[in-house]
Every structure is written in C-alpha cells, then in structure tokens.
Amino acid sequence: MFERIPVLIAAPGVLRVVEWRWPSVRGQKRIRRGFFTDVTRWLFTPTVGKLFSGVFVAIVILSLARILGLPLTVDHLKGLAERDTAVGRQPVALQLVEFLLLADLLAYWQHRAFHTFERLWRIHAVHHSYRA
User: Fold this and answer.
1) Tens digit of pLDDT per residue, the chain (132 long)?
2) Do 1 and 85 meet the contact criterion of CB atoms below 8 Å apart?
3) Percentage helix, strand, coil, to 5, in the chain?
4) What secondary structure letter does DSSP report for 64?
5) String of b and e for 44-83 (b: at least 16 CB within 10 Å)?
6) CB atoms inside a 10 Å sphere around CB 103
7) Cα(42)–Cα(96) distance, rounded to whole angstroms?
8) Of the candidates 99, 92, 112, 94, the residue with the CA atom closest to the CA atom of residue 15
9) What residue spans define the domains of the chain?
C-alpha cells in the first residue's frame, strides 16, 4: 500500500520539470500577480468543491427517488458510500494526498488545454481578466 508514496511525492517535481521544459507561457515568473489567488483556487476546488458536488448529488438522488416513488432507506444511501475498494482500504490521509495530486494533474492539463485551443480559450479568458 505504501509503495506508491514515493511516486506521489515525486509527481509534483515531475510536473515542475515539464512546465519548466515546455512552459505554457514563456518567461512567466513563478510567483506572479494572482499567484496566491490561483493557489487558493487550487486548494478550494478539489476540497470544498467536492463537498458541494457531493451535497448536490445527494439532493438529486433524493429528489429523483421521491419523484419516481422509489423507496430510499438509510441502508441504500450507506451502500453508495461504503464500497470495499483498494482505495477505500487505504488510510484517509493517503487518500487525500492521492486525490489532491490527481486533481492537480487533471487541472494542470485541463488548464493547458484552455490555453491551447481557441474555443476553450474564449471561455477561460475570464480567469485571466482578474484584477485585484
């Protein structure tokens, strides 16, 4: 189980090298205007955002069950969260680290795609129009 920890620790360093070697914006400073806003967003999105997503999904499930007249007991709801999986058997701290690293990896490549493809850039440009 713990054999993956070195990979999780090394992943940010690998991404740093990738960004250094093939930067999205050449010559951009690492600590630039808006950096702390981006870091706050990075922490907020996968943590608080996931909580709100979970609440939203629960509301949708409960609403659909009610509309369709399906019985939904506490045992049904527990079954959605209590699955026996390899990830679920890991310590919660390790799951959190894995989740944050995976979320960061996906967000990194999503962000690069926003800067690469014109149609995505039109939507994403709002992110760069921020003024403190």
Assistant:
1) 567 677 767 777 888 788 888 887 788 777 777 777 777 777 776 677 677 777 877 788 888 888 988 887 777 777 766 677 788 888 888 888 888 888 788 888 888 888 899 988 887 777 676 654
2) no
3) 75, 0, 25
4) H
5) eebeeeeeeeeeeeeeeeeeeeeeeeeeeeeeeeeeeeee
6) 16
7) 14
8) 112
9) 37-82, 88-132
What does the alpha-carbon distance between residue 36 and residue 128 come to, in Å, rounded to a whole number?
14
List the structure tokens of 21: 């070697």
Whether 30 contacts 120, CB under 8 Å: no
The tokens describing 3, both together, are 């054999």
User: The pTM is what?
Assistant: 0.41
Residue 68, CA distances (Å) to 58, 59, 75, 103 in order: 15, 14, 19, 34
61 within 8 A of 72, measured Cβ to Cβ: yes
For tokens 């981006």, the residue is 38
